[in-house]
Structures are given as C-alpha cells and as structure tokens.
Design goal:
- The structure is a single chain.
- This protein is α/β, with parallel strands linked by helices and 209 residues long.
- 33% of the residues lie in helices and 21% in strands.
- It contains seven helices and eleven strands.
- It has helices at residues 22-37, 52-55, 100-103, 134-141, 155-171, 178-192, 198-201, and strands at 5-9, 42-45, 65-69, 72-73, 83-85, 97-99, 112-116, 123-126, 130-133, 146-149, 204-207.
- A six-stranded mixed beta sheet has the order 2-1-3-7-10-11, with helices on both faces. It has a three-stranded antiparallel beta sheet with strand order 4-5-6. The chain has a two-stranded antiparallel ribbon with strand order 8-9.
Length: 209
C-alpha cells in the first residue's frame, strides 16, 4: 500500500466571526513530521494553500490518508450544505467552503479520511438511509475509513489526540487497526489527566475498522 498522506489546514480565517484555530497548524505540522521522520511521503497545505481549487484538482486521488484540520459545520435540514471551511479563494471562483454536496463529486482512494473539526459526524437522519452528511459524502467519494466528531471539540486537546493517533498508527507499521490506534490515543489522554474528561476525547469516532 502507498502511505502518501495529505494534511490540509486552515488556521487563519478572513471572516471576523470565525474563531482562529492556532493548534490546528501545530497539529498538521507535527503529523507531517511523523510521516517525514518515518521516511513516508506526505504533503501539508497551510493557510491560503488549503483551498478548494487544490481539493477539486483531482490530486486527492493519489493520497491514502487525508487529514482536514479546520472548522466544520452541519446543516441538518439541508445536509448537502454541511461543509468544511477552507482558504478564501475567490480569485479562482470558489467561496472557501467545501460543501458536502461538492465532496460527492471528488474521487478519493483513501484508506483513511480524518475530519479534525467540530460536529463532522452529524447530519440529517433519514428513514431507511441513516445519517446524511459529510460522512456519507466521503464514503461515496471513496474513503474507506473515516474519523469524525459528534459535537464541538476543543482545539488544543483535539490536536493532542490526533497527533497521538498518528503516532500509534505509524509506529505499529500496519499491525494496529485504526480503531485500536484511536482507542489507545484516548486512553493516553485519560491516564495523563489534563484532558481526561470525556468532553475532550469521546467526540471522535471511527467509521470503519
């Protein structure tokens, strides 16, 4: 299997109503270093480079792991309008929001897609269909496993959890499932005490194995 990884981060926002997420930049850069130290190919997109034009360029198809660390939002009435905030890129005709409806049109070949953002696992519950939202869009686009959150999460603790998750997954050299790697990262947070409360770690779930 290829181990190529893409980490997209949008930690500085142009919209004054949106709270910056300083820990997301540390998160993505630290995860990149884990890959680099293990001699695995990875790419980080920060600030203005984390834009819709790149996401829609077709290049995502070559990555086996895709990690988004940004703001997310859910529209329970119109799930296709749920989305992830990216860089403002109006020069290329984009609005800086990757909507769920747009994710359906992506072609992914990822073993894992991580949405390190708030409420990315929520959506509209439709009888006979289940939850319609970002998760379903990613599965439709080709992601085999997905990590999402069920409520609003804390910037700093999320960063720690994600870094530990990747440490576990990479150090195991394929001998540890994603679910085990995430579980062990959560157990570490509990044992260390600072972020032991379930508020900090239980929001993130794995859809897959």
């Amino acid at each position: 299997l290829k181990t190529d990884s893409l980490m997209a981060n949008r930690s500085m926002f142009d919209r004054s109503v949106i709270t910056p997420l300083p820990a997301t930049e540390t998160e993505t850069e630290t995860i990149f270093k884990l890959y680099d130290d293990d001699n695995l190919k990875a790419k980080v997109l920060l600030h203005s480079n984390a834009n819709e034009a790149f996401i829609k360029s077709g290049e995502l198809e070559q990555y086996k792991v895709i990690h988004f660390a940004t703001h997310g939002f859910v529209n329970s009435e119109n799930p296709e309008l749920s989305g992830l905030l990216l860089a403002q890129d109006t020069a290329k005709g984009e609005d800086g929001v990757l909507y769920s409806g747009e994710i359906y049109n992506l072609k992914l070949n990822a073993n894992l897609a991580v949405l390190s953002a708030c409420e990315t696992g929520l959506g509209k519950i439709q009888k006979g269909e289940g939850i319609i939202g970002l998760t379903r869009a990613l599965l439709y686009a080709g992601a085999k496993n997905i990590i999402v959150s069920l409520w609003q999460v804390v910037d700093e603790s999320t960063s720690d959890l994600m870094v530990d998750f990747y440490k576990n997954a990479l150090s195991a050299k394929g001998q540890l499932s994603y679910s085990e790697a995430l579980r062990n990262a959560k157990l570490k947070m509990i044992s260390e005490g600072k972020y032991a409360h379930p508020l900090y770690w239980s929001a993130f779930i794995l859809i897959g194995k």
